[in-house]
Amino acid sequence: MADGTPVAGMDAFTHLGDRVRAALSERGFSTPTEPQRRAIPPLAAGENALVLAPTGTGKTETAMLPVFDSIHRAEDRFGVSALYITPLRALNRDMRERLDWWGEYLDVEVDVRHGDTTQYQRSKQADDPPDVLVTTPETLQAMLTGEKLRKALSDVEHVVVDEVHELASSKRGAQLTVGLERLRNLADPFQRIGLSATVGSPAEVGKFLTGDRGCTLVEVDAGTNVDFRVRNPDPTDEDERLAGELATDVDIASHVRAIRDIVAENESTLVFVNTRQTAEALGSRFKRLDAPIGVHHGSLSKEARIDVEEAFKSGEIDGLVCTSSMELGIDVGRVDHVVQYGSPREVARLLQRVGRAGHRRDAISEGTILVDHPDDTFEALAIARRAVAGEVEPAAIHHGSLDVVANQTVGLVMDHGEIDARDAYETLTRAYPFRDLSEAGFREVVRELSGNRLLWLEEEADRLEKSGGTWRYFYANLSMIPDEETYEVYDLSSRETVGTLDEKFVLNFATPGETFIQRGEMWRITEVDEEETRVEVTPIEDPAGEVPSWTGSEIPVPAAVAGEVGEMRGVAAGQFETGGDRIAVAREFLPRYPGDERTLTEALAPVERQVETGAPTPTNDRIVVEGQGRTVVVDAAFGHEVNETLGRLCSALVGQKTGSSVGMEVDPYRIELEVPGRTGPSDVVEVLETTDPGHVESLLELALKNSGTLKFTLAQVAAKFGALKRYQGQGRFGADRLLAALEDTPVYDEAVREVFHTDLAVEEAAAVLERIQSGEVDLVTARELTPIGTGGRSSGRELLVPENADASVVETLKERIHEDRVILACLHCTEWTRKTKVKRVPDQPRCPECESTRVAALNPWDEEAVKAVRAGEKDEEQERLTERAYRSANLVQSHGKQAVVAMAARGVGPHNAARIIAKLRENEADFYRDILEQERQYARTQSFWD
Fold first, then answer.
1. Residue that wins the pLDDT comparison between 175 and 74
2. What are the GO BP annotations of this UniProt entry (predicted)?
């Protein structure tokens, strides 16, 4: 395929007309940048092209100068000549400002259209179309159905898709590819131009963009233009002082200080973080230090985002803590340096972020990755090396997503009023993600749409026609982004709105008593008001010792990155085994990886301890299964999605074998399972060694039926098929009822496909099983938990319940709780305490010293609560602990051992125990079922943080 390189010595700008070259001189463009040099000649010749080049190298002008030249030279202009499509409205604003000058100089009218465009402006555009229209994928959907706009769009000759990597891996992008084919039904063949900073599979994305009609690839390697440093700051005396000032630990203080110093050393610095909560937490610390650093993320209002962008651009502030939205080229002026706080998790993400720096011709983009945890350090080093080498992850295109087929079939009916089913099918399958859509599959979707009254299927004529629900459905579903209701979070103490929670969180998690973090603070839910879509909360004044019920899920780490971390561990372990010390081993890595001696030495500590204990080291080709008590850890360096797949498989099969729920927690290097009694590492090893790799997909689909993930995805997909309303009752929808109703429909098929595509890696996991069973991957066990096995990051937990789990589950739960230990403490005389197993607690606990029944039942690690009760004058923390102890004692005094049992369960404190006990039941088993449900809720809801 051509790379667009012009003949030696030939200036790319000579391919443009006199007026455009005059504009270039006026604008100060003397020589073309590398992407302009290579891409303008094929673009000026009308070829389709995908231009991949670092941010700040003039990609917009690369695409638009040939487009402007073509429009300027045209003798007659009637409708819209060019569409410039961006994934963000904020980018529309920037593009309009950036293109206006060229438009005015070349007498080419440029305008913007998106969801906020006024009705007056829309009418004006329909009556007098601009030459260039900057828009979003969703607005294109609406434009394709308007009578006047369809006429204007019939003259389109060029379509530019900016940040194409962002769309290629989403359903929005799959929808856009069909939208472009619908546009193709209106217009003559038009030129397609894609722009991106980096893509891991350029040829595939080129096919995505063009419908596999041929695409010139112009790729300027981003890795040759970047310089990374991975650092774990060494705490200083100043950090000790800062830690006290910021009320944090010294390691966090050292990172805050390092960021502050980097910002001070540069004129303009972007500080990227992986979550909005981290952005807020860092921002609050910089505010306390009075540092000139702002915060930018998607939960802020549009006005607040624009204000901070302008402040950064003008130099009013020197740094900006930001999340992924700032990856996409929003104009904030020149950026000198980029800090990545924590591992970026993916190569593409790091290149996209650090590529924001050094926006000068041929300047190097400089980035610092600040790390702390050993996993983070190895991961960041691997990602940085891979970024320089250009080893970028491939785009995860949604092939054959049936809810997009449904959405776009209705769109085609809206375009034409009525359409031959065969014509609709042919339009859909011209789009690259749907090239393999079978006719039978398409007809199943059509029948589902007809049954939901979104269109009318005329069977005899094989025609699709509008029905009463077509118009309403289409305009309510212009976007493939799931339409989730938002709940206001309302602080009862201050009478202020804290923020918002999405519907998925509220439906699956939000019940009174649960705790979560928002805006960097911890909150306890008091009430959920369904009618007002409001969650009422109170602040937890001192969250020390309080574990949030809801914690964050991580950006998935790819298998290739995790595998390199495993390889690094293996190399280090080999050197430790032959007597190497940490400093010497660290120095061995420095020529290959962009770290420093101190950072690598710290990260190597767990590997060194692993070797010292004599335990096998998990690597890219060795899995170590270890266990202690009811915890089994599978050390497997295969990345998030493969480990999630293997973890679900082990959970389902061990759960089926024992009839008990199995807790699961996954990170890129470990699968942690909480198994029932009399189960251990050997049971997990058996699953890995004996499961037929060819059965992985079917086994997982069976397991998914009992997961909240599938049920929630099913509801979202059902909404895009117009099916949800048929099954909604009062208030919350019945997920189990919905599953039963839709199981044999394309709605269910798509929900399963999406979960497999987004969360799992079935083929890769099956390949791991094949490698285990062939001996290519070693599978070994350790006698107890090892330093590496216990060193993971928490990433969310979900209990997977086998279908036969009932009586045996209740019995296992009862046995576990009765074997757990509690502290009994008399709150009357405050002298007597005893640590004992739950099974040894009498029906009515009583103090042997004073005979009082006012006895608290506390967790084994809760000695501080006992000390707080005995204290004279109490601080706020002791008051909180004392209050909790008295609530426990009141419950034990009223309900005896039943209260002790309830409070010994995981995630069940006095508040939830009182709710469980208050229910009227016919037998003891129901009491334990209620406890089990609370434990499941506690475990399940940890995966809903975004």
1. 175
2. DNA repair
